[in-house]
Amino acid sequence: MRSKRLLTMAAATVAVALGLSACSSDTSETTDTSAADAGSSGYPVTIEHAFGTVTLDAKPERVATVNWANHEVPLALGVVPVGMAAANFGDDDDNGMLPWVEERLDELGAEPPVLFDETDGIDFEAVSDTDPDVILAAYSGLTQEDYDTLSQIAPVVAYPEAPWATSWRDMIELNSAGIGMAAEGRELIATLEGEIADEVAKYPGLEGKSTMFLTHVDTSDLSQVSFYTADDTRAAFFEDLGLSTPKSVAEASTGDEFSQKVSAEQVDVFDDVQIIVTYGDQALVDALQADPLLSQMPAVQNGSIVFLDGSGPLGTAANPTPLAISWVLGDYVNLLAEAAAKTPRP
Questions:
Q1: For residues 122 and 128, is the Cβ–Cβ distance under 8 A?
Q2: How do residues 59-108 score in pLDDT, each as one tens digit?
Q3: Domains of the chain, start order
């Protein structure tokens, strides 16, 4: 059973209080976060990001989003984008939307926005056709060329530092600032933090367990251990859940890469890993336990492995996003707690 969606109530409260309609409001909001630099109340608002700054002269009425999950911020705050990226991973019914996005649109009584097909990259023409006032991409893999092209369409809110490394908090902070709802964004962050804390408190056995996230494992070639670094949002989310980052993973997390590889012959470096999370099924666990090198990892020996369906909603939601967190939290934390229970007592 998935956790109670406190986010829905918080977002609905915001929508009622502000009298929101899809992408329209006369209220101006100044962001006083590190993401924005506004000298006085109202507009213009300037937001800093990896490619420089973007200045918004007025509150956007037509909001478009590109790349993964950026549309979840305006939706959580009661604003329906005019266009957003279609889900190309974890879509359970092939309609281009993840289930928590469908649920939120139903709650808002809104029709699905235009869906951009990003199978081969950003569809710039489709984005332009929606005539946006702002393009949200705080969590994305934009290149300089992508950013420059999108900027010819509308102001772009890009990621703060590195591609695909924006935390869920920063995603909310930047994107909410981009639609003139910075205060509501901070309220959303606080609501989610409270929900996470309440769920984690049910499982004291999670506290401090060192956890790593293996990338998609090819059982036909186990000569390398590929894992998400501490900078990747999937691995960083462990800290929110009361877990800890293994020293071995932290030391291997260099540069802006969101994943790294280590030869299986050096697998003893991961002796400090108590829990493994990865995409796969029991066959993957069997393969790891049968491998003469990888079977030496304590987490593998103890069976302290959480395997997620990489093509389904649960596997997708392990990458925390504003709407997915509430939808999957109970199931995900319960799986982690089951793995933690298999680790040896100190």
A1: no
A2: 999 999 999 999 999 999 999 999 999 998 777 788 999 999 999 999 99
A3: 6-198 (3.40.50.1980), 204-340 (3.40.50.1980)
